[in-house]
Write a structure and sequence with these properties.
heterodimer; A: 442 residues; TATA-Binding Protein; 4 domains; six-stranded antiparallel beta sheet; five-stranded antiparallel beta sheet; 36% helix; 38% strand; B: mainly alpha; 2 domains
Chain lengths: 442, 271
């Protein structure tokens, strides 16, 4: 029995709003703490790098505790939503029994009056009164007592429910993406092609296709500033050209759910090594920002920087770890290598493009969740559930005792009171008017 | 070229003047000062608008690309929000804090470089406009909620220091509702801010979420205000606890706006 009580208490706490709030606070604090550590390998933390790695601080967002926190929040959200379902049902679609059982006297906003009916069909008039104000009205009768339940904006609480569920959808999609997403990068010179092996067994299986870079251009706007970079690509699958298109920043290219993003670009260096031990000149294409060993000169190496806007490239010649010469080269210029090893000549450049190939089957789910979340957020604000209970009883002296009640949660009570007072004023004037009409008819 | 610096100086001076005049009204109960303060604040808003217009004319795009431009829009949003509100309802003391925030934002960005350079390709997207405009609405609403919360804390406190001021403040219920309503307007826009940023990031970088510090702090802002709304809706938090939470929320907003930019590096290094 005690165990069962403990289980019940724990379950109630776990599925409570209070626990959800505690989780929100812990998650905020965890996120603030995590943002202090850039995700990575722990480099840049100096001598404390090992501690950062041991504690998992190098990528807190992927740590078990962080994921557990998110999972707990989601479970709490789901549990709270399930708990709310019953209340939602009875607050938006109450049964006649529930309407009759409603304790109007205990409601935060109540109004009482009694009137000499004098033959007025007050009940029907009140139903009509609410309907003209776009309320849906339900009527229950028990002996000489009649209950009216008038409500408007029933969808409001359901939008709030949908908002919470769509948040769960977003987090679930995010978690799925973490498992199913695949990503690779390809570096292609213009005219080159490369096979891409991507995908994962958890998603839609491993996929192979070939990307050929047909052209790479830079677009400029009217002011001469770079507007975008365009990689013109062809997709080849099973030896057939299956799709062509452009990859641009903000405009990814889509091939069967694989998205190609313009990741980087540059100019590869076309060089020629002649003289020295080389019989015939040897041509090579070198990538920028890399260090190369010189053939036949084991102790020597050369580093090339990125291609400059002014049509030159920086280089540095090394012997062992020591820089022995540095300078810039433009097309046609050459460097005389040490120890009569020959001449290295820059013959030209060839543009290259770095494409990122991504596949994430969770994207439609995440974006659907985000869209619904935004939509429900605004609908929750603008569609407010308004409810009025009205009980009418015929008294022994033939008068009609009328009690009107309305519920309002604390955050909208002031607004609800204003509306309630307005409604009471309208009912009072309508009752007076109806009575006047009846007397005129009489 | 001359209009933007001049308009900026007018906004700077007028916002400062409005702060002083609102303060005079608040501290010494001078309704004449309040009337002048409102006029000067409108003048500042006019200057702010002119500075924005001049920048649009100079760059040929919306001024949403760097911290200076965002700050200009943020101050504009705070002031416009407050001045429109005060046309509907006059809340004594609110002008002091809102105009002070508008002035502080303008003062902060006056120290920043005012580059009018071209946008980098990743920023040439309509999503930038949606993303930053939602940020301006959300942050301006949160700024109003902060001002209301500070007033509430003064009104509900028992410090003898503010005894004189307390008498001049409006009913606490009015302030409490102001804070709540401002948060309720700001939070959906904060949601849109995150959603539009996620969609844009997916198009530009292929990752809708990459735990960039600005993203993370936007999420923290969202969580703090979500906690505020839930604490109020479900647990009935009102008064001082709710006001403290609203103040905490705006501190997070300001850290996201300024702190993250200067203290952390990431994809949002330009704002």
């Amino acid at each position: 029995m005690a165990e069962r009580n403990f289980f019940n208490r724990t379950w109630r706490l776990f599925t409570s709003m209070r626990f959800g709030l505690i989780l929100l606070c812990i998650l905020s604090a965890a996120l603030a703490f995590a943002s202090l550590f850039a995700p990575g390998t722990g480099q840049g933390y100096g001598e404390t790098a090992w501690l950062v790695q041991v504690l998992g601080l190098d990528n807190i967002y992927r740590s078990f505790l962080f994921r557990l926190l998110f999972a707990l929040l989601c479970l709490n959200l789901i549990a709270c939503s399930i708990n709310r379902l019953y209340m939602l049902k009875i607050t938006t679609f109450p049964s006649p029994e529930q309407i009759k059982k409603s304790n109007i006297e205990q409601m935060p906003l109540i109004y009482r009056t009694s009137l000499e009916t004098g033959g007025i069909p007050a009940e029907d008039r009140l139903v009509d009164f609410f309907r003209r104000r776009h309320y849906s009205v339900r009527k229950c009768r028990d002996g000489s007592t009649t209950w009216l339940y008038a409500s408007r904006g029933k969808a409001g609480p359901w939008f709030s429910f949908g908002l919470h569920i769509s948040l769960v959808v977003v987090v679930a999609g995010f978690a799925w993406g973490g498992v199913a997403r695949s990503e690779t990068r390809v570096v292609l010179l213009v005219g080159e092609q490369a096979e891409v092996v991507t995908g994962s067994q958890q998603s839609s299986g491993v996929d192979r296709f070939t990307i050929r870079l047909d052209d790479f251009t830079t677009l400029y706007d009217a002011s001469g500033a770079i507007d975008n970079w365009v990689s013109r690509v062809t997709i080849i699958a099973n030896g057939q050209e299956v799709q062509r298109g452009d990859v641009m920043v903000n405009h990814p290219f889509n091939y069967r759910g694989y998205h190609l993003y313009q990741y980087s670009y540059g100019q590869a260096l076309k060089v020629e090594l002649a003289g020295g031990a080389q019989g015939t000149p040897q041509a090579a294409v070198l990538s920028p920002n890399r260090f190369y060993r010189l053939p036949g000169l084991e102790n020597y190496g050369i580093w090339f920087g990125s291609w400059n806007e002014n049509g030159t490239v920086d280089y540095a010649l090394y012997k062992g770890h020591q820089e022995i010469a540095a300078g810039t080269l433009s097309t046609g210029e050459s460097i005389t290598l040490p120890e009569s090893a020959g001449i290295l000549r820059l013959t030209g450049t060839n543009p290259f493009s770095v494409l990122q190939v991504k596949h994430d089957p969770s994207i439609p789910l995440v974006f659907a969740g985000l869209t619904l979340m935004s939509l429900f957020f605004f609908l929750t604000l603008f569609v407010r559930h308004r409810r009025y209970w009205l009980r009418m009883e015929e008294t022994a002296d033939g008068a009609l005792s009328l009690i009107l009640g309305s519920g309002a949660s604390m955050h909208t009570r002031a607004l609800a009171r204003e509306e309630f007072d307005g409604m009471v004023r309208e009912i009072e004037s309508s009752l007076a008017l109806w009575k006047g009409d009846e007397q005129d008819v009489a | 070229m001359w209009l933007e610096p001049l308009a900026f100086k007018i906004a700077f001076g007028a916002y400062l003047g409005a702060v002083i005049l609102y303060l005079a009204d608040f501290m010494a109960d001078k309704p004449v000062a309040a009337r002048w303060a409102a006029a000067v604040a409108w003048l500042g808003l006019l200057g702010n608008t002119a500075a924005l217009g001049a920048r649009i004319a100079a760059t040929g795009r919306l001024p949403l690309a760097n911290l200076y431009e965002f700050g200009l829009c943020f101050a504009w949003g705070i002031m416009l929000g407050y001045l429109l509100l005060q046309l509907k309802v006059k809340i004594k003391g609110l002008g002091v804090f809102t105009t002070l925030m508008g002035f502080l934002v303008i003062a902060l960005i006056s120290m920043l470089p005012r580059e009018t350079g071209a946008l980098m390709p990743a920023l040439r997207s309509n999503w930038l406009t949606y993303h930053v405009l939602t940020a301006i609405v959300a942050y301006s609403a949160f700024a109003l909620s902060f001002a209301g919360a500070v007033l509430y804390l003064i009104a509900s406190g028992d410090s003898p220091l503010f005894a004189g001021l307390r008498r001049r403040l409006p009913d606490r219920e009015v302030l409490d509702r102001l804070v709540y309503q401002a948060v309720v307007i700001g939070l959906p826009f904060q949601t849109l801010l995150i959603v539009t940023g996620a969609i844009w990031a997916q198009y530009a970088w292929g990752a809708y979420w990459s735990w960039d510090p600005k993203e993370t702090w936007s999420l923290i802002t969202w969580l703090v205000y979500a906690a505020y709304v839930h604490a109020r809706f479900m647990l009935g938090w009102r008064g001082r606890p709710a006001a403290y939470l609203a103040v905490a929320g705006f501190i997070v907003v300001m850290f996201t706006f300024v702190g993250v930019t200067f203290l952390m590096s990431g994809q949002h290094s330009y704002v």
